[in-house]
Amino acid sequence: MENCFVLRHAVVSDAAEIHVLLQEAFREYAEFIGVTQLEALNESIKDVEYEIKNNTVFVAIADGCIIGTIRVRISGDEAYISRLAVSKPHRNMGVGESLINLVDRFLQSKGVKKAILYTASNNPNLVRFYYGRGFYIDSVSHERGYPRARMIKEYRNIDTDEELCSCHNSQINSFR
């Protein structure tokens, strides 16, 4: 399988395909962490459409199919990252890393100072993945029935134009 994919903003017509990907990925996530209910599994296609219309959703596409997605909600100088999912056959090929890198550049271009996400702290692969992208564990709670890490990444002020030009040149204009 060739390691070639395109990243772009999601559009409403992507919602059904994103929904299928999220359901598959979060069923696997729930099984791994030993829970039967997750908020992500209760989402409908309409919920995904709402997120695309009202927040920022990116997708990774290979051979005309959505193979990855990530969601971002900005509030002031902070952002909440959620619903990172990559299809099982496309994992460990740089899709998740590319989506996080794209979100990093997007958030920096918007003046965001801090990104927050949550993941299962008992899933070493996910924690290691986020550590490798500059996140650290701020706290852990058990309120949802599993050890859930609140992870933070802090952005320092950099020349975002220079940073943005290094990769994904086609996305620069859509950030402004």
TrEMBL record:
PROSITE patterns to which the protein is assigned, alphabetical: GNAT (PS51186)
Claim: Flavoprotein is one of the keywords in the record: no
Residue span, N-acetyltransferase domain: 5-156
UniProtKB keywords: Acyltransferase, Transferase
Entry annotated with the keyword Transferase: yes
Domain of life of the native organism: Bacteria
Pfam families xrefs: Acetyltransf_1
GO molecular function: acyltransferase activity, transferring groups other than amino-acyl groups
Classification via PANTHER family: AMINOALKYLPHOSPHONATE N-ACETYLTRANSFERASE-RELATED, AMINOALKYLPHOSPHONATE N-ACETYLTRANSFERASE-RELATED-RELATED
Protein name: GCN5-like N-acetyltransferase
